[in-house]
Amino acid sequence: MYTVNSLIKPENADFLGIYDCSDGVSMALYENVNEDAFHAYKNALVNEGYSVFDSTDFAGNIHFTLKNDDMLVQLYRSIDGKMRVIADPYTAEYDKEQGSVERKCNTELYQFETDHSLIDCGMCYIIRCADNSFFIIDSAHYFSVHDNDRIHDFLRSMTPENKKIRIAGWFISHGHEDHYSKFMDYMLYNCEDTVIERIYLNLVSAQHPDCGRWNQYNNVLMENFRNFINNERDIPIVKLHTGQRFFVRNLEFKVLCTHEDVYPESNEDFNNSSVVLMLDAEGSRILIPGDAGDKESIIMEERYGEWLKSDIVQLSHHGHNGTSERFYEYVNADVVLCPNTQIKIDEEFPRIRANRVAKEIAKEFYISANGTVRLTLPYKLGTAQVFPDETTEDFVSIKYLWGYDYTPEFKLNHISQFLKRSKK
């Protein structure tokens, strides 16, 4: 099996260790690598028979993808002088250039209302590409029982009756069940009239040195999901690494951070295994941090700074403990999308300053539980369409499942607001 140990070693660099990136992929970390030495190492690999597949420069952080017949190698030098060398013998290739796109519709970003009757977490974003195919980000929790059907019906409603639903890419941000569960159910129960072209992800290893600090039930579920994905080899799976830029139809994505960037620090917070994406489409920039937490936040702040500036940002970790106030100051987004319930945001807003900073900067703030939101790209402020609210809390079941309870007055007011949003 090809590993990072199969590669030549860079000269005059300090070796810090090897990291298991999971899925048979490994990474060597070096420090005190200047830009000249980084390019010299890339050239040495070319002399060994590798060819340059792609290259990027994000705010002075330089990346190369090299390939031969057996393996893709990712070289990434961050501005702190550290070099990450990743050997990936299994990943499918990504599209490094935008192909021709037959324009049939507007490009639209949807913050999809996941069913929050029984659960307050879950996240699903659907981008309708210009050719009427779709790119989907995450899905929903298994307690959002029928959301695979709801997602399917939503896509079906925008697809001509005599055509298959075409999902050009489905991205899973990390291995928490509220992000991938309904993707699995969609694959099992809704794919008869659907074509999925590629899956994009980078799951952390279940043998990570810090896995004992993570929720063990979640770890088992993540491994079940990994096995499920590995059995879907008829769909190309792209393992994403920091520095990559890939295209899906008229969408351009940049990978800003993964769990690989946290190494050699500990990763006791599983949310710091999120893959962070930046999307550029039709002149609008959208930042999707998934559930990125404190360590990924610091990494991105230090590497990218004001380059993070975006028009639209997803509130990290559903507005729970996620990225920092400094992160949102750099992002400086006019629109904030929050994949959570109104109740939980209201409860946590006074406690989490980062949420308050993001909202103070923004001109528009949308909570997914209050109804699916459509943003036509390029987005102009004031043009969002909020669809009728479809689901609301089942307070009896929530008390039984989670122990949460509220006063009769609170519940009556909440249901009254739901009826107004649902136009019932």
Can you characterise this structure?
With 424 residues, the chain is of the alpha/beta class. It folds into 2 domains: 4-88, no CATH class; 107-386, Ribonuclease Z/Hydroxyacylglutathione hydrolase-like (Metallo-beta-lactamase, Chain A, 4-Layer Sandwich), CATH 3.60.15. The chain is built from 10 helices and 22 strands. It has helices spanning 35-47, 147-157, 177-189, 216-230, 294-304, 325-331, 342-348, 353-361, 395-402, 408-421, and strands spanning 14-22, 25-31, 51-58, 61-67, 72-77, 83-88, 107-111, 124-128, 134-138, 165-171, 194-196, 199-201, 237-239, 245-248, 251-257, 276-281, 284-288, 312-314, 335-338, 364-367, 373-377, 385-386. Strands 7, 8, 9, 10, 11, 12, 13, 21 and 22 form a 9-stranded mixed sheet that branches. A 7-stranded mixed sheet has the order 14-15-16-17-18-19-20. A hairpin with a 2-residue loop joins strand 16 (276-281) and strand 17 (284-288). The termini are far apart.
Summarize this, please?
With 424 residues, the protein is of the alpha/beta class. It is built from ten helices and 22 strands.
Strand residue percentage:
25-35%
Distance between the termini: 60 Å
- Overall 3D geometry? globular
Mean pLDDT, all residues:
95
CATH topology category name of the largest domain: Metallo-beta-lactamase, Chain A
**Which percent bin holds the helix content?**
25-40%
Uncertain residue segments: none
* Continuous helix count: 10
Q: In the CATH hierarchy, what is the superfamily of the largest domain?
A: Ribonuclease Z/Hydroxyacylglutathione hydrolase-like
